[in-house]
Structures
1.
Amino acid sequence: MTPDGECDTFVAQRSGELDGEVRIGGAKNSVLKLMAACLLAEGRHVLANVPDISDVSLMCELLEAMGVTVTRADHRLVIDVPDELNTEAPYHLVERMRASIVVLGPLLGRFGTARVALPGGDDFGPRPIDMHLQALESLGATFSTAHGDISGTAEVLKGSEVVLEYPSVGATENVLMAAVRAKGRTVIHNPAREPEIGDLIDFLNQMGARVGWVPDRLTVDGVEVLTPAGSGEGFEVIPDRIEAATFLAAVGVCGGSIYLRHAAAEHMTMLIRKLTEMGMHIVADDEGLRATVSGRLASADISTLPYPGLATDCKPFLVTVLTTASGVGIVTENIFVGRFRYIDELRRMGADIRTEGHHAVVRGTERLSGAPVRAHDIRAGAALVIAGLAAEGETEIADAAHIDRGYEDLAGKLSGLGAAITRR
Ligand code: UD1
């Protein structure tokens, strides 16, 4: 049972062709950072198109632990940030959601002090924050660790040249949210270019920040005061490209024709190109995109890369599609080494997959076979749900709470398209 009283298992059956329309919600990986950015300015911020997922609930808890008041209704968040805040992020919250580390930058930017529990490892292996700290040190912050926490201080943050040796999403976000309050100009070289970074920049600029974006660097002219964003209707979070990818994979294994309302095709160029190469027919319009699959898809090789490359978060879905496609596909993971744990679960369902280091060789089979499996993380869990739609018999996916971290009513949305799936 999840804390919300939801049953903790998805039960999927082999499904026929999918048909109908599904609404894509706001991006998890954007809204969490926008919520952290609110810490930069006293007053009332409003966010719209906020997905009803448990990671948002956790971020609400974290902000509340700092003294912020959050009201949540109808996919909107009203975030009231007081003048004074408790600048500590405790372990029991950081441990449950590693993205909490992103409060470090805004707290240092506004208060010159922050204490955040160090995140531990997870199912993707260790997730270091060395680049976050180096980048913040370039602005003049200093760090010390004790009792499992990292404490940062900065008398004055000074604009500087920041060079990221790798375009880390989290490090880019943290340094950006500190630099908006630094004295003078910061230039961030080799930043992450994900659409969620663009959303954060738009949000910060609406707060009065001065961030400019050219392809290989960000320029940030520090300002003295920021004001709340999202007055009126609220700041609209961009659509979740990873949720959209999940439904594309579902139609990929089941066949049929579905319309993804609010999906942003411009954020999914590489994925659309890859699925088209495999035989999916995708047409985008102003409101979303339609994906049509007739017959079995053909295999293709897949390699994950920082945006605009193929997102590592989409890889589990693509692997699932390959398990039922015709031919052999080689999958290479370049972002998180060891992000292959769900493959053992897919093998239990009859998938033919061999792994070697950060490569997987997937040989398509005509039919998977339903089995009890376990969701180890959000995307791996969703990939198993999709595999269950293509498998003979029943697939029980345990630990569904992992899936709820990033999906609003995945079972309901899939069954709205005709998939045979329930919660138990
Ligand atoms: C974010 C996303 C995650 C996505 C990932 C890559 C959120 C909440 N999460 O995670 O879903 O899969 O981007 O698109 O937005 N690294 C270091 N040192 C650092 C920081 C990162 O070595 O200081 C390494 C990581 O271990 C990893 C790689 O860099 O191998 C990418 O990490 P990063 O881009 O920072 O991902 P996250 O921000 O953690």
Note: The chain has two domains: 9-25+239-423, 28-236.
2.
Amino acid sequence: MSGKKPPFPLLKDGKRHDGRGPMDLRPIQMKVGILHNADGSAWVKMGRTEVIAAAYGPREPPMKAMILPDRAVIRFRYHMAPFSTDERKSPAPSRREIELSKVIREALEATILTHLFPRTVIDVFAEVIQADGGTRTAAITAASLALADAGIPMKGLIAGVAVGKVEGQLVLDIDQVEDEYGEADMPVAAIVGLRKIVLLQLNGVLKPDEFLKALSMAWEGLKRIYELERSVLGSKYKGV
Ligand code: ADP
């Protein structure tokens, strides 16, 4: 949403700049159990956006002061690797990363059965390896898969996707160019099986009817991502 004119048309003959139709997701790949040294881990690639997530716990908190007597404490870190962006990003956490860490943590708290593990901590780290738009939604999908891979009980898997508006048209799963030159970016994450939205943000401008349409487009995308998550986790994790 730079307000600048795109260097090439974002929509031509109903197709987006990468050839997708408005309702097409980017090609998605997912894997779980990719890291030896984490209790659970996952890798999610949506187009060129690539995120890995690692989950640890439930384990004893490093500091007594963190302990909650009735539930587990959830900690989550969203971080972009310095090499993930076109220009090297400082490895120090930015305000954006700190805020995203907080809102994604709150989304994860909505699904993790924290009351089953009082006096413990569950840590989740999401590292953006390659950024091309939709990193927060890929991070939340990866985090949910890593938690499932760690065997941490959840109400259901979370999936995330962003809907955008480019040249007046709503489009699903926007990439960086569509985000940069588009008119709106609306990331949504949900516990799909329970029909519960746990994260919803909007940058840019949408009319109320466009907002409702964007939400139903996001929901279609989330259902597809959720089915993929379930098939990647396989029979071992049936029920999430
Ligand atoms: P999201 O990745 O969730 O869509 P934003 O809308 O904030 O988050 O960012 C859109 C895209 O802009 C990112 O995916 C990334 O490709 C790029 N971007 C974001 N922050 C930076 C940064 N600090 N340096 C370079 N590129 C960035």
Note: Helices lie at 95-109, 135-149, 176-181, 208-233.
